[in-house]
Design a protein that fits this description.
With 374 residues, the protein is α/β, with parallel strands linked by helices. It is built from eleven helices and 13 strands. The chain has one domain: Zn peptidases (Aminopeptidase). The strands form three sheets. It has an eight-stranded mixed β-sheet, with helices on both faces. It has a three-stranded mixed β-sheet with strand order 5-6-10. It has a two-stranded antiparallel sheet with strand order 12-13.
Length: 374
């Protein structure tokens, strides 16, 4: 823990988000970090260095402006990452393929944008995989979220480039898992699209049929994250994931509840939830367990469809989102990590995450979680 803390503090604390500036304040780059320690701590420090590097890669992705980081560019970056490590493969499903797969919820969100959507599928197959566990990671990657027809207010809309931070964490974490050579099969599905207003955009009142056949009444087009995740979760389970964790900047309710320090986790399995909480505590990606209760399900009841995409009441917004996602998680352990608070900072937090912008939240947690399954 001491070695990890030192490495994280130095490498994450020295991150510079201002790489688009043409004139920059002169900074001294860290060329070497020397730790005087024993061999065991040295190995842990090297592991922390690798994970911190991938965390900063996720921050780079989160901070990229939407005119540079389109869904297709994110898919290209995932491909580039696969060439840097061993055992990682990438497949990008375009709209023609997602239409064939009848991903009606994902496709509805995607249809309002001129930048083609991508369902990015990453597979890590280690040569010495242990057991039958397949870790499934699902990431929300809305590369820019205007709210769609339910348009957001203009204040701070520029921050909506960070709405792909869940996907950024998943893409970078797959690189970290492969880089560390962890012996656990891992599947990632990243739902990448913009959410834009357009003559072709989906509307409030539309009823969507997701891949698993369930129908969703659209109340707000600004609750799009749960729609793209619905089809991604179904696909991850179909592709063999036994234990699923999804990461998403899903609700403002979670920011109100937990601020920018903790993410909230919802799960259908207490043991899986506790393992995720423990991974967060060990790495600094802190997690707070949130309640799930069958009585919350009534909040997404719809007159016309199987469910609606926002809660019927002005309360428990995080639970409303989680209840919808549970409808698509299938059988087996699943957890939803709402990272809306800690994924990106408007101001420095006063600790080693001293810079505004993307934090890379989730990469360290996922690497620790995968290690615990190995």
């Amino acid at each position: 823990e001491q070695a990890r803390a030192v490495v994280d503090g130095v490498l994450l604390g020295s991150y510079d988000p201002g790489r688009w500036k043409t004139t920059r304040r002169e900074r001294r780059e860290i060329e070497r970090l020397v730790l005087v320690t024993d061999a065991d701590l040295g190995a842990e420090a090297d592991r922390a260095r690798r994970v911190a590097s991938w965390t900063n890669r996720a921050r780079d992705l989160s901070n990229m402006p939407a005119n540079e980081l389109t869904p297709e560019r994110l898919a290209e970056i995932a491909q580039e990452i696969s060439s840097e490590v061993t055992g990682l493969s990438v497949e990008a499903l375009g709209l023609d393929q997602t239409r064939e797969l009848e991903m009606g919820a994902f496709n509805a969100v995607a249809q309002g944008s001129r930048n083609p959507a991508q369902m990015i599928v990453m597979r890590y197959e280690p040569p010495e995989a242990q057991g039958d566990v397949v870790l499934g990671l699902v990431g929300k990657a809305i590369t820019f979220d205007t709210g769609g027809i339910s348009l957001k207010p203009p204040d701070f809309m520029e921050e909506m480039k960070h709405d792909m931070s869940g996907g950024a964490a998943v893409v970078a974490a797959m690189g970290a898992i492969a880089d560390l050579g962890l012996p656990v099969r891992t599947l990632a599905v990243v739902a990448a699209t913009e959410n834009m207003p357009d003559g072709a955009a989906y509307r409030p009142g539309d009823i969507l049929r997701a891949r698993n056949g369930k129908t969703i009444e659209v109340i707000s087009t600004d609750a799009e994250g749960r729609l793209v995740l619905a089809d991604a979760l179904t696909y991850a389970r179909e592709q063999g994931a036994t234990h699923i964790l999804d990461l998403a900047t899903l609700t403002g309710a979670m920011v109100i509840a937990l601020g920018d320090i903790y993410a909230g986790v919802f799960s259908n399995d207490d043991g899986w939830r506790d393992r995720i909480v423990a991974a967060g505590a060990a790495t600094g990606d802190r997690v707070w367990a949130m309640p799930m209760d069958p009585r919350y399900r009534r909040m997404i009841d719809s007159t016309y469809a199987d469910m609606r995409n926002t809660g019927r009441f002005r309360m428990a917004g995080g639970q409303a989102g989680a209840e919808l996602l549970k409808e698509f998680a299938g059988d087996g352990p699943w957890a939803h990590l709402d990272i809306a608070g800690p994924a990106a900072l408007r101001y420095g937090r006063g600790d080693y995450l001293s810079q505004p912008g993307g934090t890379g939240y989730g990469v360290r947690l996922i690497a620790e979680l995968a290690s615990s399954l190995a």
